[in-house]
Amino acid sequence: MYKFILLLHSGFRYLVLALMLWAILQSLAGWFGKKEYTEGNRKVNLFALISAHTQLLIGLILYFISPFVVFAKETMREATARYWTVEHIAMMIFAIVLITIGHSKSKKETLPEAKHRTIAIFYTLALIIVVVAIVQSKRAFFGLSS
C-alpha cells in the first residue's frame, strides 16, 4: 500500500503544478491586461485549490505510513528524518494555506484586476514554496523516485 500511495502522491504533483501554473499565468494576464474575471478563471483557480487539497490528503496518508517519518527525539538531529517528519509537511501545509487564503480573498474582491492580482500573488508564493520543498527533498523533480 505504501508504494501505491507514494506513486499516487508523486504523480499527482504534476497535475497540481500544472493547474497552479495555469491559474498563475491566467491571473497575471488578467491582472496586467486588465481583463475581466470570467467563469473560466474562477474554475481554473478552484480546480488548482481542489487539486492542492487532494494532494494534501494523499500526503497525510503517506505521512502516517511512511518509513521515512520518524516520531522520536533523535529525528531533529538526522537530516532525512527531520525533512520528511517536519520540514516537508510544514512547507506544504503553509503553501496550501496560502492557496486557500488567496482563493478566499479573491472571491471577496469586487474589481476583476483585484481578483486576478490576489490569485497571482498568493498562488505564486505557494508555488515557490512547493517547488522549494520538492527540490529540497533531493528527489528527482521530473522523475518518480522513491
Automatic annotation (TrEMBL):
The chain crosses the membrane at residues 12-32, 44-71, 83-104, 116-135. Keywords: Membrane, Transmembrane, Transmembrane helix. This is Cytochrome B. It comes from Mucilaginibacter pedocola.
